[in-house]
Amino acid sequence: MLFSSWQFILVFLPISFFGYFWLNRLRLVTAGKAWLVAASLFFYAYWDVAYLPLILGSILFNYAVGTGLAQGHRSRDGDSDDGHRRRRHQLNRKVVLGTGIAANLILLGYYKYTDFLIGNVNAVLDTAYPLPHIVLPLAISFFTFTQIVYLVDSYRGETAEYDLLNYTLFVTFFPHLIAGPIVQHSQIMPQFASRWTLSARRTNIAKGLFVFSLGLFKKLVIADSFAVWADAGFDGGRALDFFEAWGATLSYTFQLYFDFSGYCDMAIGASLLFNIWLPINFNSPYKALDIQDFWRRWHITLSSFLRDYLYIPLGGNRNGEIRTYLNIFITFLLGGLWHGATWMFVIWGALHGIALAIHRLWKRFGRPLPSAAAWLITFCFVCVTWVFFRARTMDDALRVLRGMFDVGSAFGREAATLPTADLAWGGTLSDLLLKVLPASLVGQAPVYLAILIAFVIISRRNVLELAEGRIGVGRMAIAAVLFAIAMYFALAATSTVFLYFNF
After folding, report:
1. Using CA atoms, how far apart are residues 436 and 421, in angstroms rounded to an integer?
2. DSSP at 308
3. In the chain, helix, strand, coil percent, each to 5?
4. pLDDT interval class at 368 (50, 70, 90)
5. Assuming Cys at both sites, which of 153, 233, 294, 388 could form a disulfide with 348, CB separation 3.0 to 4.6 Å?
């Protein structure tokens, strides 16, 4: 079930909301939590009920392991026996933690990387093992990472003793279940435990509806409009000139941002209806002045996960400069692979790892760039690397990149060589523009007009900044108009999907 579907907005969300607070009003708090768990599992199973046992089995396994680790930590603290017994106890806990993490990664690897692994074995060894074409279960990357965090924190003694219902609610709470943000128990469970969240709050309802409406508009009106141009450039198969290639790349750059940040806005908005604040996942990433700043703003919860549970355990910056650069590279290489089982994602992750290492080295010289130059370099690098993130094959990536760097093609095309559809948008206006602008740019004028508008939008305050303070009548009226426009697009669309559902 999509956040942007009428089934979710007009049926599922209202029923979930009123049912939860009605039970809380009757002081049936446990029943209210069970209601949310049932609603969240229905939300997940709506995609394919066959995978419901998978997530339930994952929850039961990780709850059992996490509970054992947490209890073992308390037992260790209270153990006054000899050091040998304490060391053996610690070793046993490490084995349990390693087994739990390995089981999660094996499950994820089976569904996500089996075809990738067999395909590469076939390519390297010239074999012909058949590909099983395993369907990737919805949200498996996100609920796997969420539970790995829980296991590690249980090992460290940082988790409270939750019962199975509360743990299941933490994992399955539908606003974050499908595509994040990746949450930690300490961010969610104390909020559900607070008596303050048991009653509907008008301020949170207003803020939640405001944020949800703007996120819905970002997804359906902005992101899905850019998707048409991005798909035409990346999937068309033909050579692209300078303006076509940059038009396709910038379209995807904005499609991905407005799609995923729009989803996260909707997740935060829907969660706020239940008085639960989810962590911020996007903070105007295209305003970043360097690549490190970009990753502090883009997919913040994933960046935090990679830092805390991969980069730091690898040694972080504690073992010298060379090892630090290697740790950065490995972290982003694996971060790229997490996004998908293709070499395109690996290349994308590797490029970001190299860029972060270069940025760290540059900072040592103490020669900061002017803000405008720093922003331009950072934004252009991110755009170029999105080509690998979006392209299905290396041939597609190179085809787009050739066009982006073929400056000569910007002025080398005649109007007669352009498809009629590229010029039909403007009628006689196209004829006037052809007298002063390159023919290829005139053909791409609607794309670049939309790109210009997108630049204006990202230069302003983001949705969560706009939602600060009390939501008055004026802002609610604007949100209502944007909601109505987005719903029109939703009902008119033949198909829509959030990009990060693929990851």
Report:
1. 20
2. I
3. 75, 0, 25
4. confident
5. 388
Model confidence pTM above 0.85: yes
pLDDT higher than 80, residue 493: no
Return the number of other C-beta atoms located less than 10 Å from residue 331's C-beta: 24
59 vs 305: CA distance, rounded Å: 20
In angstroms, the CA 442 to CA 1 distance is 40
Cα distance between residue 55 and residue 65, in whole Å: 15
Residue with tokens 């998908």: 340
Torsion of CA 336, 280, 256, 399, to 10 degrees: -30
Three-class DSSP category at 460: coil
CA 318 to chain centroid, in Å, comes to 29
175 upstream amide cis, omega within 30 of 0: no
In this model, does residue 77 exceed pLDDT 60? no
CA–CA dist 336, 502 (Å, integer): 13
Give the angle subtended at the CA of 236 by the CAs of 235 and 242, to the nearest 5°: 105
Cα–Cα distance for residue pair 336/347, rounded to 1 Å: 7
Structure confidence at residue 500 (pLDDT):
54
The first and second tokens of residue 443, run together, are: 């053909």
| Alpha-carbon gap, residue 471 to 209, rounded angstroms | 10
State residue 444's pLDDT score: 87
pLDDT tens column, 425-440: 777 887 788 788 888 8
Which pLDDT score is estimated for 421?
A: 72
Q: Does residue 89 have a pLDDT over 70? A: no
Residues 256-282 as b or e (16 or more Cβ within 10 Å = b): bbbbbbbbbbbbbbbbbbbbbebbebb
Single out the residue of 375, 402, 227, 212 nearest to residue 297, CA to CA.
Answer: 375
Residue 339 designated active-site: yes
Selecting among 84, 339, 352, 359, the annotated active-site residue is 339
In eight-state DSSP terms, residue 298 is S
Give Cα separations from 120 to 129, 138, 243, 491 (angstroms). Answer: 10, 24, 35, 42
Written as one letter, the residue type at 498 is: F
Instruction: Cite the DSSP H helix spans in 218-320.
Output: 224-235, 242-273, 291-295, 300-306
For helices 242-273 and 394-405, the axis angle rounded to 10 degrees is 120
Contact (Cβ atoms closer than 8 angstroms) between residue 32 and residue 20: yes
| pLDDT tens profile 221-249 | 999 999 999 999 999 888 899 999 999 99
For residues 143 and 341, give the distance between their C-alpha atoms in angstroms, rounded to a whole number. Answer: 18
